Write the structure tokens for this entry.
Amino acid sequence: MTSPLVQLVPIPQRGDARGQLSVAELGGALPFVVRRVYWIHGTKPGVSRGFHAHKQLHQLCVCVAGSVRISLFDGRREESVVLDASTKGLLIGPGLWREMHDFSPDSVLMVFADSEYKESDYIKSKEDFIKSVI
Ligand code: TYD
């Protein structure tokens, strides 16, 4: 049986009368030590992003406001998921071609990563990616 490309992890919420507080911590929603956090926001209408794979990087994506659709492709299968709640974490490991589509205007996509930014970890050509996994 093939394992799903979309690996969702629940992000615990500690809500009370004041509102919500969401937690991503090591051993909880986060299976790795975080060395970098970035967030994608203010995405213009109709813009899609991503279009690359990583050789080593592990990431946890959480859409903390609004929504975004993320598609994952392993060279054979493609799966897509809509992140539309701050309780929904998406783990993306190495060897997956990712694209981000349908950003809502208010979308804020937080990404936790297990490594600093390294240009050399990117595969930016889909053709090269397919060659690397097949
Ligand atoms: P880019 O990789 O094009 O974003 P995406 O593929 O998610 O759409 O990144 C946009 C720019 O930001 C590019 O010049 C690289 C830079 N960048 C960093 O400097 N550090 C980072 O952690 C990331 C993710 C990007």
Q: What stands out?
A: The chain has a mean pLDDT of 97. The chain has one helix and ten strands. Residues 36, 38, 49-50, 52, 117 surround thymidine-5'-diphosphate (CB under 6 Å).
